[in-house]
């Protein structure tokens, strides 16, 4: 059996998230590549899931009774790896091998290599479909574990997302919770400039989802009741639409589209780490 979910205060979670963000910077700096912006915006969501919400056990990562997490925005792998390392799935020192040859931590999550990774992702739109399949399987087998999926707002431009949403809503998969990391930026510019899927909440409601809108998805005081409401919702899947800040926690990365897929140099690394260590 997976271990019982632990309880942390918001202040404790903020300190954990600061360390998770440091891991993102360590990994992308060591790799000289990767995606820090969207990893940093989702760091609080990932921290809450792995340290407060999900029923998981790092000592038994393949426990069939565990909750599942699918990082549908698979390019934010540095964030996922960092939270897994902080949670104890593998040593934090391993973050320095990000994207290196023979490393378990490649540019996109690989469920065959990395402890704690529940689904290989990277091609946008496919992760949420896999999460829907996991939730359906749990229902079919009469299991009580839950499935969570994190999507990017730019990812919502993929048609496959809405096919999956339609299926989940029509089948009342109330053991599924999707979180949209709405930071407003994607690789080519702002969401509004490229191909906006807005209004996001209304679209998911039209697909028969229960929708919770979170004004600040980087605030644990707002994430906590949202996930509690999602867990209590019956008869429909839940989508938490969380507004976040791309590059959150690093002053020169915040709200800067150029940090979608670029690694910090040595000077930027030192500045970023100094800023993030203040949050510990």
What does this structure look like?
The chain has 280 residues and is an alpha/beta fold. The mean pLDDT is 96. It has a single domain (10-277), classed as Thiamin diphosphate (ThDP)-binding fold, Pyr/PP domains (Rossmann fold), CATH 3.40.50. The chain has helices at residues 10-31, 36-41, 43-53, 77-87, 126-141, 159-170, 191-194, 200-206, 220-232, 266-277, and strands spanning 68-71, 147-152, 176-182, 185-186, 189-190, 210-214, 238-243. Helices cover 41% and strands 11% of the residues. The longest helix has 22 residues, at 10-31. The chain has ten helices and seven strands. The strands form two sheets. It has a five-stranded parallel β-sheet with strand order 1-2-3-7-6, sandwiched between helices. Strands 4-5 form a two-stranded antiparallel ribbon.
List keywords for this structure.
Rossmann fold, 280 residues, 10 helices, THDP-binding, single chain, alpha/beta, two-stranded antiparallel ribbon, five-stranded parallel β-sheet, 41% helix, 7 strands
Secondary structure layout:
Layout: H1 10-31, H2 36-41, H3 43-53, E1 68-71, H4 77-87, H5 126-141, E2 147-152, H6 159-170, E3 176-182, E4 185-186, E5 189-190, H7 191-194, H8 200-206, E6 210-214, H9 220-232, E7 238-243, H10 266-277
Parallel strand pairs: 1-2, 2-3, 3-7, 6-7
Antiparallel strand pairs: 4-5
Helix pairs in contact: 1-3, 1-4, 1-10, 3-4, 3-9, 5-6
């Amino acid at each position: 059996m997976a271990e019982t979910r632990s309880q942390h205060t918001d202040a404790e979670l903020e300190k954990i998230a600061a360390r998770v963000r440091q891991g993102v910077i360590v990994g992308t700096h060591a790799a000289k590549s990767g995606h820090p912006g969207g990893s940093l915006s989702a760091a609080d969501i990932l921290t809450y899931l792995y340290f407060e919400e999900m029923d998981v056990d790092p000592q038994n990562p393949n426990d069939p009774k565990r909750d599942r997490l699918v990082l549908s925005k698979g390019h934010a792998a540095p964030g996922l790896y960092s939270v897994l390392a902080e949670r104890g799935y593998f040593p934090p020192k391993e973050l320095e091998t990000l994207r290196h040859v023979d490393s378990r931590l490649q540019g996109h999550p690989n469920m065959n290599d990395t402890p704690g990774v529940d689904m290989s992702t990277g091609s946008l739109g496919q992760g949420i479909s896999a999460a829907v399949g996991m939730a359906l399987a749990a229902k079919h087998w009469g299991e009580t574990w839950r499935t969570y999926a994190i999507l990017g707002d730019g990812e919502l431009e993929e048609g496959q997302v809405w096919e999956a949403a339609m299926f989940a809503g029509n089948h009342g998969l109330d053991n599924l919770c999707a979180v949209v990391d709405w930071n407003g930026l994607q690789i080519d510019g702002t969401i509004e400039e490229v191909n906006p899927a807005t209004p996001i909440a209304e679209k998911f409601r039209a697909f028969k989802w229960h929708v919770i809108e979170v004004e600040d998805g980087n605030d644990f005081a707002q994430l906590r009741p949202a996930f509690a409401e999602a867990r209590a919702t019956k008869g429909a899947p839940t989508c938490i639409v969380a507004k976040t800040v791309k590059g959150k926690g690093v002053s020169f990365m915040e709200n800067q589209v150029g940090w979608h897929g670029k690694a910090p140099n040595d000077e930027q690394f030192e500045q970023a780490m100094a800023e993030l260590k203040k949050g510990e």
